[in-house]
């Protein structure tokens, strides 16, 4: 595995079918599952590591976002990454970008409403990574459901020849979705945070039992969050996977998305509902059997 700082060096180090996993580093098993998914599907496995300032709002956690390049490099070795592309700010944005990518409508709902400019920053950096690294295939997590929908749309709209794989959410044994931001949680917050996934799983149970009304489905998620001390729900919404439009009933592939503040930390989670022959099936994600040793619940940093 080599670490390279420039687009040119990353391209020069790539041969054959190229797979890309974009990340902001501080890796956990969620990131590793994306890498493991792509490993057998490509010749060169590339991971980008860049904390993208464009996608952070002025009051968000850019400065304190956790970073540990050395540890990340060792973890990428363990899953067979060939090249880590770790550009500095000058390589990524030699000048303040005059060009940006804005994916209309999809980016203005849910988190887009609450984090103005966030998805424009995400779409712009992903477009740059696709243009600069020219991957044949790229993997993104379902953890960021709206982001995944936006990336699929920007790839279709701008005719990038990159195939997209959406990967299941990796969860702690108790259900908490892994996130680099879990490292901010103290012990009490870590315990409270499980309310997000608990509500989502209750909603998934209701769907399995035949519930299709979005308000009723959302109520399971909201109820679990609202009844947990230390959790301040922001929203629970059932949205279509393709357009990210709010649904009144579950009648197409969808995801139930939640956002909440747990102490000062904002967390998101979701469960996807995919179609199968019998109707809808919930993607409840993948549970670790033992607690993640990679930062989650590490007592705050
Ligand atoms: P980030 O470093 O947070 O930008 O995430 C990089 C990629 O990892 C994105 O495609 C995320 O959706 C994905 N990801 C983050 N957390 C998880 C998780 N718990 N399970 C699966 N994928 C994840």
Write up what this structure looks like.
It is a single chain. The protein is an alpha/beta fold. Helices cover 33% and strands 23% of the residues. It contains 10 helices and 12 strands. The protein has a 6-stranded parallel beta sheet with strand order 1-4-3-2-5-6, with helices on both faces. A 4-stranded antiparallel beta sheet has the order 8-9-10-11. A two-stranded parallel sheet has the order 7-12. Helix 7 links the parallel strand 5 and strand 6. The two termini are 29 Å apart. Mean pLDDT is 96; it is low at 296-301. Adenosine monophosphate is lined by residues 23-24, 30-31, 33-34, 140-141, 143-144, 167, 169-170, 177-180.
Structural class: alpha/beta
What's the total helix number? 10
Helix content: 25-40%
What is the straight-line distance between the termini? 29 Å
Number of strands: 12
Radius of gyration: 19 Å
Please state roughly what percent of the residues sit in beta strands, choosing from under 5%, 5-15%, 15-25%, 25-35%, 35-45% or over 45%: 15-25%
The residue-averaged pLDDT reads: 96
Major sheet attributes: 6 strands, parallel
Strand/helix succession: EHEHEHEHHHEHEEHHHEEEEE
Record the SSE blueprint.
Elements: E1 2-4, H1 7-12, E2 18-23, H2 29-38, E3 44-49, H3 69-78, E4 83-85, H4 89-92, H5 110-114, H6 118-133, E5 137-141, H7 145-157, E6 163-167, E7 170-171, H8 187-192, H9 194-208, H10 214-226, E8 231-240, E9 254-262, E10 265-276, E11 279-283, E12 286-287
Helix pairs in contact: 6-7, 9-10
The structure holds adenosine monophosphate.
